[in-house]
Design a protein that fits this description.
By secondary structure, the chain is an all-alpha fold. The chain has one domain (12-427): Proton glutamate symport protein. Helices cover 72% and strands 0% of the residues. Helix 11 runs antiparallel to helix 16, helix 13 (270-279) runs antiparallel to helix 20 and helix 14 runs antiparallel to helix 15 (300-313). The longest helix is centred in the first third of the chain and has 33 residues, at 80-112. The two termini are 12 Å apart. 49% of the residues are buried. This is Na+/H+-dicarboxylate symporter.
């Protein structure tokens, strides 16, 4: 069952009119939210609870959906060597593409030089607004992050909604259930039925997606205003151009090799992308991505393992943001980094991008962590980015979502568990998507 669209059995004759499509409602809500934020900012700021409530509703069901999907997939597969193989391939892909995204962000920072001309003096910048972020960054070292993957209790993992902790429990539970063989099949079928129930809940929640997107975007524009981006328009423009190039060239190239068109894939997940656009949260799209990728022909175990893991280990947009932001701050202070320092930056950013996963405002926390570990650049320079982080965060969340979808298709293809007929039918719009 798809969380946001019609069932896969639907035919073209059953296509819903465009004005009743979810993506149309969300797009209209975003436009209305932008207008309200610009012309009535005081009222727009009061819309924040609408966006927060929608994201909380989605997060409420993410844990059970991941658990049911992964357990049913692993237990149904019954081969733990295969589970390890899928996980290994996913991590290999994650690290290769993540490194590439970091390098591309670094290259873009040198090409566009968005921080040139600021000529800042670090002693004259008030960094008091960053104290909370610095505290959180100190709290999440890489070692602590690895230890944090293990929850205090099973219940605690679901209570806090930590995706990696839930994934660990799900893998262990699925492996244990697979060992039962035939005796475990009734429980596997029961868990699969429970998953369908939660996808049904998501289907209901998604009817409010337009309201959530309206509230979130209205608050953002009302709080920061369009004028707040003007002094830093060069950085924002360079950042979004780099994201576009990464999606088209890198992810598009991977898609071409794997036999699908990146633009058709983005059209297929358009509802999820618009929800991310409106809410600036990639987690809001997680349930829909799980369902749609399975419908696209990816096997359930691959989808269940790769997508949740990707939310911590495959952050393509965030990686581009990290290296571009660091170079921007360095350029603003007229700090020249050597080649060795830049290579060190890539290694540090690769580690810190894992260390802040699951923390609210994760991308900004990652940036703080990187600068704290890489002290050549003053942390106080992050004040420049604080006001526009929300605008940049939307773009990186969208690219993270696309990247995780592509990763799932790649790993499914490597495992020869990608149904090419379903993939081709969806891409050619022979089914309602």
């Amino acid at each position: 069952m798809n969380a946001t669209t019609s069932s896969p059995e639907a035919t073209p004759r059953q296509r819903v009119p465009f004005y009743r499509q979810l993506y149309v409602h969300v797009l209209a809500a975003i436009l209305i939210g932008v207008l309200l934020g610009h012309f009535a900012p005081t009222l727009a700021v009061q819309m924040k609870p609408l966006g927060d409530a929608f994201i909380k509703l989605v997060k409420m069901v993410i844990g059970p959906i991941i658990f049911c999907t992964v357990v049913a997939g692993i237990a149904g597969m019954g081969d733990m060597k295969k589970v390890g193989r899928v996980g290994g391939k996913a991590l290999l892909y994650f690290e290769v593409v993540s490194t590439l995204s970091l390098v591309i962000g670094l290259a873009a920072g040198h090409l566009f030089r968005p921080g040139a001309g600021f000529n800042l003096d670090p002693t004259k910048i008030d960094a008091s607004a960053l104290s909370g972020y610095a505290t959180k960054a100190h709290e999440q070292s890489t070692v602590e992050f690895l230890m944090h993957i293990i929850p205090n209790t099973v219940v605690d993992a679901f209570a806090t909604g930590n995706v990696l902790q839930i994934l660990l429990i799900s893998v262990l539970f699925g492996a244990s259930l697979a060992a039962f063989g035939e005796r475990g099949k009734p429980l596997v079928e029961f868990i699969g039925s429970i998953a369908n129930v939660f996808f049904g809940i998501v289907h209901i929640i998604m009817k409010t997606a337009a309201i959530g997107a309206f509230g979130a975007i209205a608050y953002t524009i009302g709080t920061y205003g369009v004028g707040s981006v003007l002094p830093l328009l060069k950085l924002i423009g360079a950042f979004y151009f780099t994201l576009f190039v990464f999606v088209v060239v890198v992810l598009g190239g991977i898609g071409r090799v794997m036999g699908f068109n990146i633009f058709r894939f983005m059209s297929y997940i358009r509802e999820e992308l618009l929800i991310v656009l409106g809410t600036s949260s990639s987690e809001a799209a997680l349930p829909g991505m799980l369902a749609k990728l399975e419908r696209l022909g990816c096997s359930k175990p691959v989808v269940g393992l790769v997508v949740p893991a990707g939310y911590s280990f495959n952050l393509d947009g965030t990686n581009i943001y990290l290296t571009m932001a660091v170079l921007f701050i360095a350029q603003a202070f007229n700090i020249q980094l050597s080649f060795t320092q830049e290579m060190t930056l890539i290694v540090v950013a690769m580690l810190t991008s894992k260390g802040a996963s699951g923390v609210a405002g994760a991308a900004f926390i990652m940036l703080t962590s990187t600068l704290l570990v890489f002290p050549v650049i003053p942390v106080s320079g992050m004040v420049l980015i604080l006001g526009i982080h929300r605008f940049m965060g939307t773009g990186l969340a969208i690219v993270n979502t696309i990247g995780n979808g592509v990763a799932t298709l790649v790993v499914s293809a490597w495992e020869r568990e990608l149904n090419r007929d379903k993939l081709e039918a969806a891409m050619k719009k022979h089914i309602v998507v």
